Amino acid sequence: QVHVVESGGGLVQQGGSLRLSCAASGRIFSIVTMGWYRQAPGKQRELVATITSGKLTDYADSVKGRFTISRDNAKNTVYLQMNSLKPEDTAVYYCKVRHRLVGTNDYWGQGTQVTVSS
């Protein structure tokens, strides 16, 4: 079993910055990708950014140039640096870990609230 825990959410004014962290622990064999997703009230969960074990990254168009995803493979931790935050970035942010042992399985954290005030 892999446990995923996010931290770093909070309330920030428009234009401000926040840094989210996500740590995976437990019986870890090989983490393939780590990623951040978000879900705003009344909307579907959407991809924000992902990073592979080789540190290849992918971003949603809405956050390109403002958010940066990074990863510490030794610590099984992924970060999301969010700059120039907008009210529309307000959502619960979830971390997903894709783990490979026999086949692959996805593990989600409990989510962390990010609120951007105008």
Descriptive account of the structure:
With 118 residues, the protein is mainly beta. The chain has strands spanning 2-7, 10-13, 18-26, 30-39, 46-52, 57-59, 67-72, 77-82, 91-100, 104-108, 112-117. Strand 4 and strand 5 (46-52) form a beta hairpin. The mean pLDDT is 96.
Q: Keywords for this structure?
A:
mainly beta; seven-stranded mixed beta sheet
Helix and strand arrangement:
Elements: E1 2-7, E2 10-13, E3 18-26, E4 30-39, E5 46-52, E6 57-59, E7 67-72, E8 77-82, E9 91-100, E10 104-108, E11 112-117
Parallel strand pairs: 2-11
Antiparallel strand pairs: 1-3, 3-8, 4-5, 4-9, 5-6, 7-8, 9-10, 9-11
Low-confidence stretches: none
User: Number of helical segments?
Assistant: 0
Instruction: Quote the beta fraction.
Output: over 45%
Q: Which of globular, elongated, flat, extended, rod-shaped describes the shape? A: elongated
Distance between the termini: 40 Å
Helices and strands, in order, run as EEEEEEEEEEE
What's the total number of strands? 11
Helix content: under 10%
Average pLDDT, all residues: 96
Largest sheet: 7 strands, mixed
